[in-house]
Amino acid sequence: MPIARDDSQVKTSLADSTGFLFQRDRIVVLGRTQAGKTVYIARLYGELYSHSQSWLSMRARSGLAHTTFMKMCADMANGRWPDPTGDQKFIDCDLSFNGNLYRLTMLDYSGEDFTRAFVGGDINSENTRALLDHLDHACGVILLIDPQNAVDSRDPTKQADDDWGMTQAVKRIREFPGGESVPIAIVLTKCDIHKGMILALGGLKKFRDDYLLWITRTAVRYYRTFECSAVRVTHQGRTSGGSPDLTKPPLNVVEPLKWILEQLESARVRDRNAAEQERREQLITRTLAHAREAIRTEPTDASFELATKLIRQLPRDCKNDSRVRDAYDEIRAAAVEQGVRADGRNTKLWLLVIAGVLVAISIVMIIVYLVQNPSVPSR
Question: Does 216 lie in the same domain as 353?
Fold first, then answer.
């Protein structure tokens, strides 16, 4: 289930080894068969549409998609588990997060497609190629894992999907261009049923270290683990005849998506600050080079005036840089050495003019004094 963001400012444009340009512009939700994808998708939409907040909300782009989601929520409200989305592989929604508009394209691939793509290595079918393509363009990933499958030694196929398969998916993310910092939310589903098992195994951290070791080791960093219960079950479990209970609030359904969006926003701020810093660096370097070149090639009053003007025209945040202050002091020192003021006026010439004016004033004052005070005749 990928979620494609519509805001072009956060799309990361990258080029692979062949020079092909692509963008990481979507959040992908991965999960194997019976990992709880359909229920998670339906409850996520129900929470963000029916209980939307001013800072986070979701709305389907088509009436058919909205009807599908709301029918799923209605089925669960009536105590029935929803049917899979069937042939609807793509469902578009608009997501508003902190005033920014995102485009969400939800893909509900089957768990069988996941197995073929990441365990069987089948990249020839249309569905697996599309799944891998979405993963390669992901700027964030939610991994849905049923913790029972991670410890169930009776079914090695399930273990392979949630261990080897998920690890291969994470490995592909990290090794593909731009994937080293993609945030990954590891979501343990159905925790209302499996909470006792997780506690008996030492708690969430111990469970993650013992049963999700290869996934977290491959993810390296930029990941977080969530215990999730999209819908509470009235009885022991789904396979034992349990039915959904929407009267109880969900646990960590919206939180994984919110965490990923926060990471993306933080990354965007870091990228913007880095770009601004790079712009300042280039501006400072270019300006100082022009200023020094001006006084080096022709140390005249005009060249010193041009050099100081270039530095004075720098933005305030650039003027605070120590290199700019040092260059300005350097130019002023060179101006004094050449007998030129840093503003381009010849120091010696102006000193002569000032001295001449002072001499003229002195002569005029002496004449005036002599006129007003004639000499007294000698006796």
Answer: no
At 245 the pLDDT is 86
The model carries a pTM of: 0.74
107 and 153 share one domain: yes
Same domain assignment for residues 202 and 318: no
CA–CA distance, 58 with 7 (Å, rounded to integer): 15
- pLDDT the model gives residue 183: 93
Residue 272 domain-assigned (yes or no): no
Structural domain that includes position 22: 2-253
Q: Are residues 163 and 202 in the same domain?
A: yes
pLDDT digits (tens, 9 = 90+) for 63-109: 988 998 899 999 999 988 887 765 656 677 888 888 877 777 776 77
Q: How high is the pLDDT of residue 182?
A: 92
Crossing angle of the two packed helices 322-338 and 301-312, in degrees rounded to 10: 160
Would residue 271 count as lying in a domain? Answer: no
How confident is the model at residue 309, as a pLDDT? 82
Cβ atoms 120, 169 nearer than 8 A: no
For residue 378, is it within any domain?
no
Question: Which CATH number belongs to the domain containing residue 180 in this structure?
Answer: 3.40.50.300
Q: Look up residue 296 and give its two tokens.
A: 């080096």
Question: What is the per-residue burial (b if ≥16 Cβ within 10 Å, else e) of 122-156?
Answer: eeeeebbebbbebbbbbbbbbbbbbbbbbeeeeee
**What's the pLDDT tens digit per position in 4-27?**
434 433 444 444 444 444 578 788
Of 155, 151, 156, the closest CA to residue 207 belongs to 151
List pLDDT tens digits, range 239-273.
555 788 888 889 999 999 999 999 988 988 888 89
Number of C-alpha atoms within 13 angstroms, CB side, residue 158? Answer: 14
For residue 261, being part of any structural domain is answered with no
Query: Domains in the chain: how many in total?
Result: 2
Sign for the pseudo-dihedral over CA of 44, 266, 142, 121: positive
62's CB contacts (< 8 A; 6+ apart) are 91, 92
Q: Do residue 143 and residue 21 come from a single domain?
A: yes
Over residues 328-341, the mean pLDDT reads: 71
